[in-house]
Amino acid sequence: MPRMRPVLIAGPTASGKSALALAIAERDGGWVINADALQVYSCWRVLTARPDAAACRRAPHRLYGHVRCDARYSVGAWLREIAPVIAEARAAAARPVIVGGTGLYLSALVTGLAAIPAIPPEVRARSSALLGSGGVDALAAQLAQHDPATLEQIDRVNP
Asked: Cβ(17)–Cβ(9) under 8 Å?
């Protein structure tokens, strides 16, 4: 495998992903880049088993703990952040080693995301009010009027 080609590492919690990523980064002169939805938050170092200072000294780590705990963050935000990090790693002749348990993040990186427009605040407010007054059934009834095909695809027990 060419040494500059990115490596993607995914797997279940506590399966050794971080150790493998660090070993590859050390061997190939790479950067370990986070693809875990929770390890981006600054306040969750212990809860998420974020790499410690010793690991970060052994190889550069990016996109870990850089988001305030009260900030809204999404896979879209992560995609916007990871692209320049990968470019920076390549410019430094470092192999990007992308690691995480968030399948959505890795899938979005590989296949992209559909462009979804921002939802106007008034639409969110109306939807929240409808949910508050009539529950999921009220939202489902409204969706049935406007898009019954989508309603058929939704698990209404676990929306």
From this structure: yes
Q: What per-residue confidence (pLDDT) applies to 79?
A: 95
On the 0-12 / 13-18 / 19+ scale of CB atoms within 10 A, 16 is: exposed
The answer to whether the beta carbons of residues 27 and 42 sit under 8 Å apart is: no
**Domains with residue ranges and CATH for the chain:** 7-111 (3.40.50.300), 121-153 (no CATH)
CA count, 13 A, side-chain hemisphere, 74: 6
Q: What is the pLDDT of the chain when averaged over all its residues?
A: 90
* Residues 109 and 85: beta-carbon distance below 8 Å: no
Task: Summarize the confidence of residues 31-43 as an average pLDDT.
Answer: 93
Phi–psi pair at 8, nearest 5 degrees: -110, 130
